[in-house]
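Reading a protein record of the kind used here takes little practice once its layout is understood. An example of such a record is reproduced below.
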Amino acid sequence: MAALLKIRAGRDQMSAIERRIADFILDNAQLLRDYSSQQLANALGISQSSVVKFCQKLGFKGYPDLKYSVGEAIARADNGDDATHPDADDVEPQRDAALELWRSKSEAQEETRSINPPEAIEAVATVIADAGHHGKVFIIGLGEDDIHARAFALRLSLLGILTVHNFDTAHMTASVSAARAGDVLLVFSEHGKQPALCQIGRLFRQRGGSVVTVTRHTSNPLRAHADLTLLVSAHDDRTHIEPLLYHSALQHLLDRVFVLLCEGGRDEQLQENLDRIRPMLEG
């Protein structure tokens, strides 16, 4: 039975938490590929183990298995509900393209994982956690890089870590004047070539802070100013596909850092903040 059909069929026999998970997946099936199990749990304000148990109860090995099955179901069902059913010759290329994109994202995530050893991820999580106890985390990204910078700043704030986020180099340069030893600067820059960001990194280190750069794995000027680096490997000859692979691999990389921060003792703070925010979103 298709994954989505299986979820719909069993919904009425589910517990309240299971129904919340089921409804989220059914309502956001197209977006599920970009959610880790922890992100899904955070979105619903439940534990990650509840997500895993939900998947296993439905007969899947775990969340990745469910997510893959949902992706296949979406690929098979593209335009399938239209009154005029497409010919098999039209559906097959769509299905193949969807699965190819899925595989390409998985390969980019795996390549990115391989060039960021566990000790490197742990080192980044450690300096952020230390800054959260004694100082601040400054975060900047320009253009599309700010999408991840802004989202990660919000996630750190939910963990109770004081963040200074900016997407303007002049404002961040002024903010850096308040930096001190123990603070951390996260610089998001896919290609790492913006001179202004290099200058900010240089100033931050002069203030005694630690600089973490988030860029492609290729050599770039920004990495010369980094104490620690997070590297992304994502390549495709098609200009409309390569950015998708980069963003997918980068999100997976940031998720690994976030999970380490949660497991480092900040999960209770996260839950408290989510409990405070939820009534505002539901009201």
Residues 81-86 have pLDDT under 50 and may be disordered. The first strand starts at residue 137 and ends at 141.
